[in-house]
Predict the 3D structure of the following.
Amino acid sequence: MTPSPAIVWFRKDLRIADNPALCAAIARGGPVIGLYVLEEGRFLSPGGAQRWFLHHALDALSERLAAIGVPLVLRRGEAGRELSSLLRETAATAVFWNRRYAGEEIAADKAVKASLAAAGVETQSCNGSLLREPWEVKTKTGGPYRVYTPFWNALRAMGPGREPLSAPAKKPPPAPRPSSLALADLGLSPQRPNWAREFPRHWTPSEAGAEAALGAFLAKAAKSYADDRNRPDLAGTSRLSPHLAVGTISPVAVWRRMAGAIEAGAVPEGEGWKFLSEIGWREFASHLLYFHPDMAIAPLRPEFADFPWREDAGALEAWKRGMTGVPIVDAGMRELWRTGWMHNRVRMIAASFLVKNLLIDWREGERWFWDTLVDADAGNNAASWQWVAGSGADAAPYFRIFNPVTQGEKFAPDGAYVRRYAPELAGLPAETIHQPWTASEQALRRAKIELGRTYPAPIVDLQETRKRALAAYDAMRQGGAS
């Protein structure tokens, strides 16, 4: 007798290969129905840029599931309600899913699990998003790590908890065809104005796109990753982050492929392990989020609750739009707006400028990145902003204030990155493109630049605002205000 249907509730695992929940549902033996629910909530609902990526990833997932006889049902609203409705429509008696780790997500999943259990529905949750569960990587005293390096050493020694699972080859029995929203009904893709019009040039949001990106990285950029990853003017990174964020590829699959390339000598050991340490940072951020569910809204170092942040709507808007008058910052913020992504080195520079030179609360930046990044990830976004702000568990010292001029000169020395995203500066030579305010009047005229008109004059003095940031930090430490 064929078992009753089972539902696989897809969330951040939009793939069929190495999908533990899907594999477990198919192994059960009955018909399988996929479900995606567009939920509402701070971390339950994706930001604008990731919604575009999600639209196309769901389209690709639907095709791959159909090829193995699994229909994908699309709904929107409260997940528990939509699951209950689908259970009634299909007579399904089991629900499978891969776990999530943000506090809001955990609360939602616990409520769903309790409701389903009360109704007599079988449930099974799996780890499809991390190398190791947050409770598996422990200090010697049995608690979670708060410092990255010892966490990474422990994780590296442990490795992933399993091997990648192959895409299901055996089709389950035919499943019922329940009602579903059309993909367009989810409203994930922008209409007019289409601010995502350049995104398709940079991203292929699908399982096949993730595999292609990984293969291309292993074939070339991985071989010189340790140095080139810091160069925004080079194609030196994997660009896998949005795929990991929505789950078109798993970190286990990425780890095993890179480890295999290192073992085969295809990627130098130092380069490969440097890349895997970045996968480890993503893991560390998710573990921090699990143990500190308010990490996106509260500093992990409690003394920063009294930091004297400034409110400056005009400066914040200039930063968001890439109009600060500081070229490497502006190029990064415009790259973000145009492509849904920003090079990681430039993310650190732009973040430091916001929280230290402008003295604007890091949470403003966290919210903006959440809405504009195709790779927005609750743990990674919050942990990285807190790292720059100095308020995190394992943060950069507060006095480490990135100088955007010297950072630009070091990591984008010929100015090509700035010229690409701030083309009004294209006529300047490399010597002044990172600080056009130092160029001679003759050089500015030759480059057809008029500071304050064709390109903004700097909205702040970098040296003076560095001093102001350090004074604010000292005031916080002394319990006073500035």
The mean pLDDT is 96. The longest helix spans residues 269-291. The radius of gyration is 24 Å. The CA atoms of residues 12 and 129 lie 7 Å apart.
